[in-house]
Amino acid sequence: MKISIQQNTLSKAIGIVQRGVSSRSTLPILSGVLLRAINDELILTGTDLELGIETKVKCNVIEEGSIVLTSKLFGEVVRKLPPEEISIEADMENNVHINCGNSKFNIVGQPYEEYPQLPELDEEKSFHISKELLRSMIKQTIFATAQDETRPILTGALMEIEKSEASLIALDGYRLALKKVKIDYSEDIKVVIPAKTLSEVSKIVDEDESDVKISTTENHIIFSAGPTVVTSRLLEGQFLNYRDIIRSEYKTKAVVSTKELQSSIERASLLAREGKNNLIKLDISDDTVVITSNSEIGDVYESIPIKLEGDNIQIAFNSKYILDGIKAIESEEIELYLTSNVNPCIMKPLNDESYTYLVLPVRLA
Amino acid sequence: MKISIQQNTLSKAIGIVQRGVSSRSTLPILSGVLLRAINDELILTGTDLELGIETKVKCNVIEEGSIVLTSKLFGEVVRKLPPEEISIEADMENNVHINCGNSKFNIVGQPYEEYPQLPELDEEKSFHISKELLRSMIKQTIFATAQDETRPILTGALMEIEKSEASLIALDGYRLALKKVKIDYSEDIKVVIPAKTLSEVSKIVDEDESDVKISTTENHIIFSAGPTVVTSRLLEGQFLNYRDIIRSEYKTKAVVSTKELQSSIERASLLAREGKNNLIKLDISDDTVVITSNSEIGDVYESIPIKLEGDNIQIAFNSKYILDGIKAIESEEIELYLTSNVNPCIMKPLNDESYTYLVLPVRLA
């Protein structure tokens, strides 16, 4: 393999595929990135076997070929080279010669034959979505996926396409986040995507201008954004029937300023943190919500004006879970829906059905 | 005690004195900040007994008095309050009531009588220095203080005033950094200041517009910057006679671009890091310095043009120590002075005697 390529072009491409490389892999070859020079392109690949990321860049291919280079070292070398043309040549012994300006590196590579092949997938269903929509869907739900592995299916988010509407749903047993968007696709899809995959996709689409094509097979999902393709295994198993959890009946509806609610709960949580459970109490009555919390070191009392419909209610929450939801809501005002102090609270942006956050209360003794 | 004060004024003052509070103190009262309301001022104090920081702000004193509040919690509460007037009132039981807008906090305080008094010091000698000069003196030397406690005196920097010249010197057995500036003061001073003190002073003067007054007593040093006073114990013991280490004879003088030298050594150190000692080799001959390094995973060869006077030389260094010095030099070109491959290398900014960095070579087998 022999190529020459601009430093900044290569550096950016390495940054993308490195997201697929695990630093904790037990298989040494997986700490590398695969370089393939074909026609007038360099194709780079990083994978941890669950998730694979491939991108391609134009370059001057003097001799076609392939090589695997340690991801971390190769990335750092390229990033630290001057913004000039880099020549990369792999010899028969897999030694790689990298020349740029007055710098000459010789780095031991690994044979490309040892690198695992990404699965060849026949895309069964596929649709397009704008990168802004995809990013906001991920950002508004991913934090609600389960962090522990006791129920593996909950470490992913459910993507459900029905009647030209795409939903992304995450839940961890304490709260649920649901984002819906309209798309131009009429078939049904129902898959559970690992949170890590969604997180990497969200970062990658950030760096690219194109819309994203999403394709699914029985066991995989493929995100294509410009020259970059992210392939991920799907999680196996049955996701919870989330529709049963989100009830539409309520006895109390309150509309409150998002910013004031967030600031007050953040202040209250300073004391809640000192106690157990990050416990804060909300007392909603008439035109005010009073937020209180206490611990050995003191107590706090916050009051915010609200617009109330329905019954007064007193209810307690883990402040972290309720704050996560408030931060995911972008509108200036939030609607809170409550039924009793043992039923979930539902939060939505004002007059906007596209986002739903549901959080379980803490039962007080 | 009862006061009212603007949120941003109080928040800034807490940020300053919190630098003096240790998070690892064994004495509970030291995790607090002392508040004293006197005349029309609030005086705040934080200390870990080695280092004490005091600052004062104007406020509306309704009732004079003093109280100690947990530094971390008090700081966070004030930072999260809206930018309005805050009322703070301590009652007879040391409970503190903090009110601002629609927020009411009650926090358990501690009696001010238990807070240690900062030493009352008679300033023996004192001089003024501009904050820019003081900051650059600290920044260019502090990194060369010893990190381990085997020779406690080397965890500080020597401040030496002689013939209207102030020098700050730090060394750790592997390298030495020396910065000299002219000041308007003719007496002699020789004290060793803990690195932590210098680091905090550097951050505090950053936030203030005033010049700094430095005063010394037998065992203490006092930095006064506007409304803020930093008092620190001095380190006891004899500092190394650094003048004996910095020789003026040399056999090789090379002038090289600071940026090129830094980039090349940074790249070389990517491979040096993989081996032992971060070892890089410099081969200075004629009009070029060649920098090489190698490890199991590969090798690197960098060449940079130089202006050479004197002998050719081959010498090896720990790349970290030489990089620290290059980064501390602000001029576009660096002068390197060398004698042999077992004698120290001295680095200076081009045509500038105010800064000296000395680094020991690594002897090759």
TrEMBL record, chains A, B:
Family: Belongs to the beta sliding clamp family.
GO molecular function: 3'-5' exonuclease activity; DNA binding; DNA-directed DNA polymerase activity
Domain of life: Bacteria
InterPro entries: DNA_clamp_sf, DNA_polIII_beta, DNA_polIII_beta_C, DNA_polIII_beta_cen, DNA_polIII_beta_N
Assembly description: Forms a ring-shaped head-to-tail homodimer around DNA.
Summary of the function given for this chain in its UniProt record: Confers DNA tethering and processivity to DNA polymerases and other proteins. Acts as a clamp, forming a ring around DNA (a reaction catalyzed by the clamp-loading complex) which diffuses in an ATP-independent manner freely and bidirectionally along dsDNA. Initially characterized for its ability to contact the catalytic subunit of DNA polymerase III (Pol III), a complex, multichain enzyme responsible for most of the replicative synthesis in bacteria; Pol III exhibits 3'-5' exonuclease proofreading activity.
The DNA polymerase III beta sliding clamp N-terminal domain, residue ranges: 1-119
A cellular-component GO term for this protein: cytoplasm
DNA polymerase III beta sliding clamp central domain boundaries: 129-239
Keywords: Cytoplasm, DNA replication, DNA-binding, DNA-directed DNA polymerase, Nucleotidyltransferase, Transferase
Organism the protein comes from: Andreesenia angusta
SMART domains, A to Z: POL3Bc (SM00480)
Pfam families reported in the protein's UniProt record: DNA_pol3_beta (PF00712), DNA_pol3_beta_2 (PF02767), DNA_pol3_beta_3 (PF02768)
SUPFAM superfamilies per UniProt: DNA clamp
Gene Ontology annotations of biological process type: DNA strand elongation involved in DNA replication
DNA polymerase III beta sliding clamp C-terminal domain residues: 245-363
Listed CDD domains: beta_clamp (cd00140)
Protein name (database record): Beta sliding clamp
Subcellular localization: Cytoplasm
